[in-house]
Amino acid sequence: MSLEAPEPSTHTDVGVTETGLDYDVLESLLGELVIDRETHHNAEAFVVRPDRVADALSVLREEAGFDHCSCVTAQQYEDRYESIYHLKKYDDPTQEVGVVVPTSIHEPKSQSGSGVYRTADWHEREAYDLVGIEYDDHPDLRRILLPETWQGHPLSQNYDQERQQVVPLTEHANPLEEDHRGGTDTMFINIGPHHPATHGVLHLKTTLNGEQVADVESDIGYLHRCEEQICQQGTYRHQIMPYPDRWDYISAGLLNEWAYARAAEDLADIDVPEYAQIIRTMSAELCRIASHLLALGTFAIDVYGDFSAIFMYAFRDREVVQNILEDLTGQRMMFNYFRLGGVAWDLPEPREKFFEKTRDFLDELPTRLEEYHNLVSGNEVLQLRCVDTGILEPEVAKQYGCTGPVARGSGVDYDLRRDDPYGYYDRLDWDVVTEDGCDNYSRVLVRLREVEESAKIIDQCVNLLEEWPEDDRTIQSNVPRTLKPDPDTEIYRAVEGAKGELGIYIRSDGTDTPARFKIRSPCFSNLQALPEMAEGEYVPDLVAALGSLDIVLGEVDR
Amino acid sequence: MSSHNQDTTGAQTTQEARMGEGVDNRFNSKLREAFGSSPFILTKFDSFMNWVRGSSMFMLQFGIACCSIEMMHTYAVKHDLDRFGSGVPRASPRQADVIIVPGTIVSKFAPRMKRVYDQMPEPKFVVSMGSCTCSGGPFQEGYNVIKGAEEVIPCDIHVPGCPPRPEALIYGIVKLQERIANGETAPVTVKPYELEQFGDLEEDELVQHLADQIDEEDLVMRYNWAESP
Ligand code: SF4
């Protein structure tokens, strides 16, 4: 840190007390910016006038240390539109605050927060696209998920789904057409939406200067499956749970289910028996291993090209994990295993067999990991390609709201399993992995080392489960058949998904379906940081950077 | 037969030493022996071509959504689709015979998928994988979702499931290969979603409204959630 830089903020403890945040102190810090106050389930929220958003956000950021804008939720009420900025601290994510910005129903215009938090840029574009709020001084307010020519805003109240639409295919610009952006001789090139290196249907509009990336812009929305709309139509108890499996579909299903389960359980005040928590913890970590292995395998494809040995090895091990999970849940990928208040059923009989199978996997894992380290992290070719490329500085990562292995690879020590404990994690012995390299290599290494930590967690859970007294194996608590949380309660809750902070915002209106269901996807925020990592690098490094972000488009587009 | 090649010194060339008398041993097989001294078969050219076509299929490396993860498992160890002569994923549509459509198709992607399909050389085949490509699956109600791949491109085989297990996908592909070898053709389906030039669209309110945003010559696809089956 240079000498001119401000002192490490001493303000981060404004309002921090032993028992949590003192919101009165924060309110007086904001002074006349606050026009009202709301209580959400997770935190207090300050209501701010639509033309003072940037001011309020920058006070909270600069003077109170809320450096993580985790999500922006937009929604429409009968009489107004509303955007909510969910703020947190990277150092302690249990310290949260909301900033609520109501705007008029006739002219939904509010000031943009993207000047304060870079990550708000994409979130606000999404809010504009789906709900229809316009943000003043937004650098680039276009549709982000739906095609540019779409009519209407689908999550606003009088949207007509039956209306006809016309979708253009204009992205077939001649890739060899010379493009003189920036004065120099540059070339514009489309990567995707169908391209083996984009990990699904992502479109990168890339401008090259020679072989270097001068500018890259991600065009997303090719897998926008209306997840939020569908969850808003489903009932809390059973109809929503199958969908989380399909957000981050790389076998991370249970981690996603947990995000919904946690939010809904906290909203409706449902307890989860301890025994079920252990099963949840164990199975979720199995999912994390499967997901990280796929990330590794596909990264190897990106860097080495073709279906290489590493890919095959990773899939061999994934098959084993999927087998275990299939024994437990009955499905290989779309588990639908968690229930509000517990899990669907107990471990498969005979239990010994299941434990044995899991243990066998864990016993073999160290040898496997050694193999991966030999092939990947110890490989000179890969190191040449990945060390010191795709740099993402920690401060930049925070600006973009990066979380998960991407943030941890930049030395940001942020893991919700430890920092905002849920499940059984706080009673187990494991470590949060960080690397300081900030490059493609560190991000891959973090994932590999996290597999080890997950294995530690699973091992302890298996021991606990094996010893658990037979008469105390409650897998679900009592949950009312139709769940109707109190009207006008709001909650934002997050868990550590495979890719980072996976948050859910739910507003209940007293019926058995949510009035607003918003998904904060880690990949969405992580992908936004791609230009920071790729610009100025060579094209192959762009591909490696994208691979090391480990995005999954189902979660980016939702 | 080898006498022409003998050089004047009388020494054997390596090739001759290898060949010995008659056909090289290495080319002998049970099948070859079965033909005995008249190594000819009589068949129709078309049947022969169909057999060849069905026995070696190049797949397009094409991933959309969740189903593509199971598709990758089908290519990878354990299931190893290559055993059936159809496990070579090609990155370019111009080199592929079969496209597996593994996932939900949304309005923004449909024209691009059509594009990719059009780029494949004839004869080409389509395996639609998963409920999403049969009907829109769990996302059928979505405002942005196309209710099945058949709305956009003709499909030869549907593999239901969400996602189908790798075994199911293999079964589907092997069935396709069988059908190709037997010379059965794909059903022709009605495709409500066509890719056409904007200028050719029938004039209506929406088209007039968009006229200043879209160029006459740009390709467009209509999307109509309500009327697609
Ligand atoms: S059928 Fe199921 S698994 Fe396949 S893409 Fe659709 S939702 Fe995903």
Globular, elongated, flat, extended or rod-shaped: what is the shape of chain B?
elongated
Please, how many helices of chain B? Answer: 8
Uncertain runs of chain B with pLDDT below 50, 5 residues or more? 1-7
The largest inter-chain interface, given as chain pair and residues per side, is: A-B, 55 and 59 residues
Write down the CATH topology of the domain at 249-516 in chain A: Cytochrome-c3 Hydrogenase, chain B
Level of helix content of chain A?
A: 25-40%
Mean pLDDT of chain A: 85
SS-derived structural category of chain A: alpha+beta
Tell me the strand order in the biggest sheet of chain B.
2-1-3-4-5
Largest sheet of chain B: 5 strands, parallel
Radius of gyration of chain A: 23 Å
**Overall body shape of chain A:** globular
InterPro entries (chain B): NADH_UbQ_OxRdtase-like_20kDa (IPR006137), NADH_UQ_OxRdtase_20Kd_su (IPR006138)
Family (chain B): Belongs to the complex I 20 kDa subunit family.
Biased composition (Polar residues) (chain B): 1-16
GO molecular function (chain B): 4 iron, 4 sulfur cluster binding; metal ion binding; NADH dehydrogenase (ubiquinone) activity; oxidoreductase activity; quinone binding
